[in-house]
Design a protein that fits this description.
heterodimer, A: about 475 residues, alpha+beta, Uridine Diphospho-n-acetylenolpyruvylglucosamine Reductase, domain 3, Vanillyl-alcohol Oxidase, Chain A, domain 3, 3 domains, eight-stranded antiparallel beta sheet, about 35% helix, about 20% strand, B: alpha/beta, four-stranded parallel beta sheet, 20 helices
């Protein structure tokens, strides 16, 4: 049995008011319904919200926020709850604002390549709609039912991030309800109601709502860049004996900026599923495998990309690298290149043997720090009988380096959950001390980040948070400030 | 007779295999091109994550097993607000996938055991089963009303208890008692007669298959009728020459094929019998060239895959001994038993038929909304949901919908009426009969 979610106090007057705002069918305080929102895939301890509300309009969101602000009730925004940082588990009870009913694709601009969507639009719905225009988005390795807008505002990443950067960099405009209930817009739609094409060259006020873990406002519409889909896919697959050689290969290939996704995975992560508990890698098998996807419009373009890749391989070989062209496991490759994917989205590859739990130290770590951090992570994870199932990825050429370890664990067993939690937090500390930064951090990570942060950074965060959310009602406690 | 019908506690390990990833909430296929659709009728109607797909129902199971959730009127209501259609199951990739409907029904069984389930309107079904051996509160004599035109035409249908025949046409309660669906058995028997098939019916001796009781969690009532039926079937096999049981009802078919097999004496009673859905049965004649369509049916039609003849018949491959992956792991699925291609093939062979597909088909078919006791417990919602499916059919430009389940047939026609649409739903046997 896992730890029980904390019981909460429900006030029927508040439920009644919420029902008045959204209608009786869309608000509830029934415990069995609240229970379904009390946990997710991660190690974060279950906690019960007090009320669940499903708004269907911007006006309803505003009314809910005004009421919650007036009554100082915490509000946790929720779209699909599929992040693995416990971000939608309410730290302080209160209202869980389930946005799934606001799920319209408002516009797909096939000429200017952007779309306007509501927060409840899933990757599956968006992908299906975009495909009609031969357009695509940078789909993450999340469930197809997950929310595209939540991925974007949480600095999510996807299959095009090697080329275009984080999904938050694809945001072109936003409509937001502030914690105090006012409606604001950022980006071009703030100047002309129907113009959703760009956040620039205005001041980057979208930054007030991205990466804040749902603590500064409720996105009600978002503009996102979308991209054409070239017809020819080529996946370069290679292996190396060490993380250092893999980092060098990915950096060199990244310099040419020809790949949509440029990723290396440790042997343990390439297994379907991740071995749980830890098992040693077989002798003679390379420790690192890489896939790099590149799309072309013509055969000649593809051949030119292949030529570049061969140059990279030659360059690395001259350095004495063990780099070899290799075969990436078929199912794993499919899961990586056919996104959104139910297979990878279900975390099947990750959790099956572990037993339904998954968490990560997910970080942005520069490429030149991958080797020292990985070697430390390996010691920590193997020491706790967990597989060092690690992924490294370059984003936007070589501008960002991502480093994360997917750690499965059985959700039924509290001791195993705690073992995974401790291992992950230990890994995170190593990464932070090497200059890495975690993304979508659960509170445990936030505490470690803030311990190390410049005092001015923490102070500025507090001021911004206080300016937008004077009563600290939005996803209370998630920033660990 | 001993039954291997698992309790919720016995399914606890499976419950804990759910990651709560939410894959189950929508149907999606990479393609290319990618396709998307809503898959959970309860999720569409009620929306909260607890109501939504297997993620929500597993949360209920987990809460019960955790000791966190106790029965309340609203909680019981929500465990019955599910059509047990298996749409969510088809999206799942995890090890509990093969038993997702079993978990949902185990929750209901627990509710019944604890004296809180099913819902009051559904209790009427249970009472009717006990009193009349059918869920429609229909007197036994009404069971054969549909046979009158045959008697009048001097082509009476054999009572198999009195006259031996190799084939038992098991009519099912819906076809016998539900007036709007009564053309099902009529068309089936008409086709059989046109093809010269030697068959009989149980008539007033037929009793419910128990599917409805099973879906509602009333395991005692299910066992009672199932055991009675199996004994009857064995007697028919041993003493009346019956080799094959043909049924037009998707629910009966599923019950006899899957639910009855949970008995430890299934092979003893049913081993010598072939259970076959009418569609499959007629397809064999069609393949042998014994069905020759002579008349045109000039309709543009689309086909609705019922849950009970579709994804409910998927065989899940499980690593039972751990030799391939690990013990209990889900390895894959086999859809060979699902009636997907056969009805389409027959439809396309009928002269004059123009066939078009809806978006959500085969294993990703959108449930009509009538299953799992929902039509009885929540009639208004069932019909509203059917309207959504009818709309999807209308969007294809089809003039008629065709299906092979009396529940779907009835509910979809009601949904069409709700939309004030001209769309009519037919059973495949009705079209075959028209074309013969």
């Amino acid at each position: 049995m896992t730890e029980m979610p904390m019981e909460s106090k429900v006030d029927s007057k508040i439920t009644k008011k919420l029902c008045e705002i959204v209608g009786e069918k869309n608000a509830t305080d029934y415990k069995h319904i609240r229970y379904a929102y009390s946990y997710d895939l991660s190690f974060v301890k279950p906690k019960l919200p007090d009320y669940i509300v499903m708004p269907t309009s911007v006006e309803q969101v505003q009314a809910i926020m005004k009421f919650a602000n007036q009554e100082k009730i915490s509000v946790t925004p929720f779209t699909a709850g599929t992040n693995i940082g416990g971000l939608c588990i309410p730290e302080n009870g209160g209202i869980l604002l389930d946005m799934k009913r606001m799920n319209n694709i408002i516009r797909i601009d096939e000429e200017s390549h952007y779309a306007i969507i509501e927060p409840g639009v899933s990757h599956a719905k968006f992908a299906s709609a975009l495909a009609k225009y031969n357009l695509r988005f940078s789909w993450p390795v999340g469930p197809p039912s997950a929310s595209t807008s939540s991925c974007a505002i949480s600095h999510g990443i996807g299959g095009l991030s090697g080329r275009y950067g984080l999904n938050s960099e694809e945001i072109t405009s936003m409509e937001v309800v502030l914690p105090t209930g006012e409606l604001v817009r950022v980006g071009s739609c703030a100047i002309q109601e129907d113009a959703w094409h760009s956040c620039l060259p205005l001041p980057r006020m979208d930054g007030l709502f991205t990466g804040w873990l749902g603590t500064t406002g409720v996105i009600t519409k978002i503009g996102l860049r979308v991209h054409p889909t070239p017809p020819i896919l080529k996946v370069f697959t290679a292996s190396t004996e060490t993380i250092g050689q893999m980092a060098s290969y990915l950096r060199t290939l990244g310099n040419y900026e020809i790949c949509d996704d440029l990723t290396g995975v440790s042997w343990w992560l390439s297994q379907v599923p991740i071995p749980y508990p830890y098992k040693p890698k077989p002798e003679g098998v390379p420790e690192w495998i890489s896939f790099a996807t590149t799309f072309s419009w013509t055969q000649k373009e593809k051949e030119a990309r292949e030529e570049i890749w061969k140059m990279v391989v030659d360059e690395e070989t001259k350095k004495g690298s063990s780099l070899k062209e290799t075969v990436y496991p078929e199912e794993a490759l499919k899961a990586r290149t056919q996104l959104p994917s139910q297979i990878v989205g279900s975390t099947k590859n990750y959790t099956k043997q572990g037993g339904a739990g998954i968490s990560w130290p997910g970080t942005f770590t520069p490429v030149n720090k991958w080797e020292p951090v990985y070697e430390e992570w390996k010691k920590i994870l193997i020491g706790r009988n967990l597989s060092p199932s690690v992924r490294v990825t370059n984003y936007r050429g070589v501008h960002y380096g991502m480093l994360r370890a997917m750690i499965p664990f059985p959700k039924k067993d509290p001791a195993s959950i705690e073992n995974a939690r401790q291992a992950i937090v230990e890994c995170l500390k190593v990464d932070l001390d090497n200059g890495g930064i975690p993304y979508k951090p659960p509170v445990d990570f936030g505490l470690e980040i803030n311990k190390r942060a410049h005092p001015g950074y923490v102070e500025l965060m507090k001021r911004v948070k206080n300016m937008l959310d004077p009563n600290d009602i939005m996803n209370t406690g998630k920033l660990a400030l | 007779m001993k039954w291997d019908i698992p309790s919720l506690e016995e399914l606890e390990d499976a419950v804990w295999k759910c990651t709560a990833c939410g894959n189950c909430k929508t149907t999606y296929d990479f393609g290319p091109p990618p396709t998307f659709g809503e898959i959970c009728p309860a999720g569409v109607e009620f929306g909260f994550d607890g109501n939504m797909a297997s993620k929500g129902k597993i949360a209920f199971a987990r809460g019960i097993l955790d000791g966190q959730l106790e029965w309340t009127e609203e909680f019981v209501n929500d465990i019955y607000r599910c059509t047990i259609c298996g749409g969510c199951q088809n999206q799942c990739e995890l090890d509990h996938k093969p038993v997702i409907p079993e978990i949902m029904e185990a929750i209901r069984r627990k509710a019944v055991e604890d004296g809180v389930g099913p819902m009051p309107t559904q209790k009427v079904i249970a009472q009717s089963l006990r009193s009349y051996d059918n869920p429609y509160q229909g007197p036994r004599r009404v069971r054969t009303d549909w046979t009158r035109p045959f008697k009048k035409a001097k082509n009476p249908i054999k009572n198999i208890m009195k006259e031996n025949a190799p084939i038992l046409f098991y009519v099912g309660c819906t076809g016998a008692f539900n007036l709007p669906v009564r053309n099902f058995p009529v068309a089936t028997a008409s086709i059989f007669q046109k093809l010269g098939i030697d068959f009989g019916i149980l008539g007033e001796n037929e009793i419910c298959c128990g599917s409805t009781a099973m879906r509602l969690g009333d395991v005692d009532e299910f066992k009672r009728v199932a055991e009675t039926n199996m004994k009857t079937f064995k007697d028919l096999h041993d003493n009346h020459g019956v080799e094959t049981i043909v049924t037009s009802c998707a629910g009966c078919f599923r019950a006899m094929k899957k639910d009855y097999s949970l008995s430890d004496e299934y092979e003893d009673y049913m081993g010598g019998l072939k259970i076959i859905h009418t569609t499959n049965f007629l397809f064999n004649y069609f393949k042998q060239g014994k069905i020759k369509f002579t008349k045109e049916v000039p309709w543009k039609v689309t086909y609705h895959d019922p849950c009970h003849t579709g994804r409910h018949l998927i065989d899940y491959k499980i690593d039972e001994d751990g030799s391939q992956q690990w013990k209990g792991s889900y390895l894959g699925k086999n859809e060979d038993n699902c009636l997907y291609d056969i009805p389409r093939e027959i439809l396309k062979a009928i002269p004059g038929i123009e066939f078009v597909e809806m978006e959500r088909i085969r294993s990703n078919s959108y449930c009509c909304g009538g299953g799992g006791g929902v039509m009885t417990g929540y009639g208004e919602w069932a019909v509203k949901n059917a309207g959504l499916r009818v709309q999807e059919a209308m969007d294809t430009g089809a003039q008629k919908m065709v299906s092979i389940c009396p529940f779907c047939h009835f509910n979809l026609n009601e949904g069409s009426k709700r939309l004030q649409s001209d769309m009519k739903v037919y059973d495949l046997v009705e079209l075959i009969d028209l074309a013969l």
